[in-house]
Predict the structure.
Amino acid sequence: AITAVGILQHAGGTYSLAPELAGELTTAIGSPLDGLMHSAEGMDKWIELETVLRRGFADYAYDRDVTRDPQRNEHFIRAMHAYAGPMARRFAELVPRGGAMTFLDLGGGPGTFSHALLDAWPDLEATIIDLPLSLRVTRKLIAEKGLEDRLAVIEADFFLDRSSKLGGPYDLVLVSAVIHAEAEAPCRDLFERLHAVTT
């Protein structure tokens, strides 16, 4: 199947990567390889789907969750950077600045949206808040782009720890892909806390 869609070539009993992809599937952060690794590591959940449906509940190893397993988390955060790149650049083109000088990227993972806004607005300062494990990749990207003086990180589990500090004040806040799996009450609480740190 992979050969049929042109990712691999088959000749003389040997498989090789298609030449046009050889330069893309690299170990650099943001490579499509990160997305492939993240998908592959999630296959164990799908393979067990029939068993889970018959049993009526999932019994997935706690320490293999993407928010707890260091390897899975790194591939996930790196993959999110690759996936979010085009959207983040478009976001930076469309969002009205309105004089904003400080930006909070809540649950920002690799900081892709922060990077796009900092590129578009050279005098903006940004902060990313996320779980400590996820911020390992974030710090690498900040260093690669030389943004240490404009992009800060705060380690916090802002849903489980209501006392966690959010910093601020902020002129602009982005809450992207962090509330879709949460109940209404913690989301309302989070937005009240965010309102308190916005100008």
